[in-house]
Amino acid sequence: MSYKVLLADDERLDLEGMRTFIPWQELGMEVVDAVTNGFNARSVLTSEKIDILVTDVRMPHMSGLELAELALNEKKDLKVIFVSGYQDFHYAKQALSLNACGYVLKPMDDQELIDSLIKARDLLDMERKRQAEYSQMMPVVKNEYMLQLFEGNYTESTIDVLHREYQFNHFAWPGRVCVLEIDDLFKMDGQTEESRGKSNTWLDSLLAWSREAGIAHGCKVDKNRVALLLETGTGQAVIERLVDQVKSAFGTTVTAGIGGNCSEVYGIERSYRQALEAVELKMFRGKGKLIEFEDVPKSEMDDIKRFDVRMDALFKALSSYELVRIHDELDALFQTAKNAKSKFTVRNYAFYLLLKLDDYLHTVNEDLFELLNMDMRSLDIILQLETIDDIHLWLRQRLYQISELLNSKRQKKNWKLISEIISFIRDRIQDNITLRDVAEQFSFSPNYLGLLFKEETGKNFSEYLIMLRMERACELLKNTNLKIYEIADQVGYRYLPYFSRQFKETYGKTPLEYRRK
């Protein structure tokens, strides 16, 4: 794509010389027009998209400086090159104040003008690249800002950016939030890059279709959900058309949950939470439904809340390797399913639980399929199992298996970490080292690291530090001729009586008695 150039000079010979002898095509430029005065130049600038203006400084009626100033007021990214027969610093100074790309003196040296044109082109190239990068980032940035809005984590600057960059100030209140969740995610989000790409395509396509339908504000929530902010007048029919588009394009159903109305920004979070609760009800109502929060009986909403509480307890038991609690929590979850006396509901339970388990495992950098060494097709067994008890047993065995694997990996991972920490302490045993110092070094909170240390070593941090210092003191007492106060200093004690008392409490002897034995 070439850049468009306008030439303005009241001396026709200079004008024709520039037009004829400069290799415009090689420079990636096109001369749109060559005019002899500022008024004609203004007319061209108004009617054409000009990238580079090459103008004489002195022209009758309107100088090149006046022309450039007017043009730059209207088009900030215009690049200007001045030519002049007057070696007058005053003009050069004014040209510099307008950020000119060049100031070429007459009689012109073609190469000097070419160099100025190349400079202008390079600046335009850089700005185009920056603009392209910004255009690519805009949807990502908006997604983040909208997610902050939905989750209630926004600030005043968030709203300012949404107003300024994304016309959020034109939103027609009242609004309400709609959350769309893809059904049968496991079938689209298995272990292959192709299937993951398909899931991402679904999210991007749905957002694009929603914009075409007049829904300007929305975002990806996670790998299987999109949240949309609906304006006044956006009815159920619009959402149903979007759901049909997804089904037609990707062969899968979508469940939609719609929250209550909100009249201001601060009410968006509440509507979003309601929409999420409505979506969760697909476990009871089935897939591919549009569920409005305000139409859901309180008893049904209480059921799903109890189910979520039970699931949280189940996942905590899973993480802490409490097999009895896993058994009990899964039993409690399946009791509701058994009361429903519906294989369809039980299968929904099972798939829903696996979906939530996969989400939970990703928060601890694990993957359901990798842990179980299985792929998507393996989940079809849930459809083949004949009774509720069979499904229950299959799930319990998988949960035991995952808990065992997590515990094994955690022990290996934690002990490796503790070993690194102990090595770190040994290297700095002479320093006044604290748990906070170690926590900062290994990027943990002191409380968490203290608990982890006690869990893996059986001692709290201060006890273990004393043990390491005493062990090192024993080595120095046995193998060196250092004085007692020097040994105390080398193991981190600046006060000799305290070192001696600590040593005697540990070994029943003073350092001197230990050395003499």
From TrEMBL:
Signal sequence range: none
Superkingdom classification of source: Bacteria
Residues modified as 4-aspartylphosphate: D56
Pfam families in UniProt: GGDEF_2, HTH_18, Response_reg
Principal location class: cytoplasm
Location(s) in or outside the cell: Cytoplasm
Keyword flag DNA-binding: yes
Keyword Phosphoprotein: yes
Span of domain Response regulatory: 4-121
Protein name: Response regulator
Native organism taxonomy: Bacteria, Bacillati, Bacillota, Bacilli, Bacillales
